[in-house]
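Issue 218. Parser rejects a valid record. Input:
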Amino acid sequence: MFDVVRKEIEWGGRPLVFETGRLARQADGAVVVTYGETSALCTAVGAKAPKPGMDFFPLTVNYQEKTFAAGKIPGGFFKREGRPTEKETLISRLIDRPLRPLFHPSYRCETQVISTVVSHDLENDPDIVSLLGCSAALTISGLPFMGPVAGARVGYIDKAFVLNPTAEEMLKSELDLVVAGTREGVLMVESEANELSEKIMLEAVMFGHEAYQLVIDNIIDLAEQSAKEPRPIEDTPQEVLDLNKKIKDLAESELRKAYKETVKQTRYEKISTVKQEVAEQLSEEEQAIMDGPIKDLEKDIVRRDILDSGQRIDGRNTTTVRPIDCLVSMLPRSHGSAVFTRGETQALVVTTLGTGQDEQIIDALEGEYREHFMLHYNFPPYSVGEAGRMFGPGRREIGHGKLAWRAIKPLLPSKEDFPYTIRVVSEITESNGSSSMATVCGSSLSMMDAGVPLKAPVAGIAMGLIKEDDGYAVLSDILGDEDHLGDMDFKVAGTEAGVTSLQMDIKITSITEEIMKIALDQAREGRLHILGEMSKALTESRDNLSEHAPRISTMNVPQDKIRDVIGTGGKVIREICEETGCKIDIDDEGLIKIASSDGEAADRAIDWIKGIVAEPEVGVIYTGKVVKVMDFGAFVNFLGPRDGLVHISELLNERVGQVTDVVNEGDEVKVKVIGLDDRGKVKLSMRVVDQETGEEIDDPRPPREPRSNEKDNDGRPPRKPRRRRAAD
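Output the parser choked on:
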């Protein structure tokens, strides 16, 4: 019934298994990949024919996590998986990026690749497993995929690279780098680093590249036994080739003139005019398929100009960064704000500080955790001079935001040193290339403006590549057109000391180590230049927070006192918050955070809590309130929830007939702790305290004579009574 093919290797100290032929047999390609005890079902399906008029490759990659993979039931009312989480979106992009360049350029059929995580051992991250599985599924599918692709995660622990570190090992790693590519070279890099040098980053990439060669061999072995017959790819029709030549003759000279215009919007207007003029000279059938030939011509013009003359669209050479302008404290009511402008790319970035109650709760397969640093990227249509519909964040927005988040995360202070929840929002107000790196620069300035004590300012730059058979050029600070028409988008962010984040996407089949080294070195020069420009606005974090930001004070209480601070059903802490207006968070270790923009209110809350958790000290005078009157004395609440007894004999120095002659319920009194009994009950005295001033007064009573059962006349303790003999 099943024609199962299984391949297993030892990789990174754990078994890696590829299996096909058992599940999802109606898909073009289906592979179950298991690494350790983490498994993913990966499928690939391509339509049999392209849709009419399709002039691009419609590829969709979906990564999804099933909670049953970790033995969990989803939260929420419906108790089932809903829309993709941020992690699922990011991993979908991670898988898509190395796969897309390897499809045949003429292939236009709608294709969908799906990875479903079906088992998670909480040690091996399913992202690498899914990437390998999707590559294997495409390789055996018969679709025109020029793979296989493989990938690996690289850690850096104790000055040594570690292949596919476990979740526990990642806690000690200075690097989290995912690299993917073919046998020939690298196609994709995604990383977060703790200010590592360019040399170490390059070595990490090549370490991963070498490590996944074994996996590529294994996928090829699997394909040799299970791959379907490859689909035929039609050659480019002769009418399209004829149209290419016709459009080149009609448009080349005018397009070259248009691309000499350095202002983006003006350039686009001229290009649009050329296209309209060309369209008027074509038939309706030719107009329907002219977009592809026009784009190919534009690509050739831009690329050849750069390679032949070293001159780019906006007139720069290959290493020059566009003019930079930085402005901070633009928004008076925000906690921190900055506007970062680089050429025709601009980001308005705002930082908001909050309390522990503002932390984002994330329900992951690995378990629920809280995130106190958030960075959100928005790309409104007006930023590129267009009118468009406004939706929630898409894959691009989530991906760019996460890239900037990775760049800044290693530089954040610890929660102990800066106990605030931080949210940074980047609004892209203009865009012409590398808006994600503008977000990094703007976020750094905005957070420093807000008083977040970053370890160092951080900046980012996007590098590009033009590669032809007769040479290549690495471009610093690429424009949008250089991104679309070029071969690489290589983003590098970091400080003066080193790299904190690196992301590389290749649109050709691979690039060499030599090109990556040139790009990294060139990126470092550009990054240092940008940091210098940023320092003109702000060199370090401000000493004081904005007057509109909450002030957070911290204090520790014994763990056995937490319940006293919270109270039954949260009654006590709710009362403190209502009375003072503060926000109060308590963790399981007894750390309390009091947040308020009013310093006096915070002090009141702190004193209140101190009163609750404080222990009474013998000889100390307290102010309290009479809460109950008895015949033998009065109970006084004097220290948080703590009550003590003022015996009738301790009310006044003279004899008291009735307690109510001296105090009544609700009276405020001053009392001195004179002792604790065996059961921890507190004994108080009013008579030795001046009720007006609260000062202690001398006790007029002579010392009490010892009782006979305490000492005998010789100062010796009394004898214990003799035991009775048991009856005979």
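Fixed in the parser; the record now loads. The chain has five domains: 5-226, 242-309, 324-534, 551-613, 616-717.
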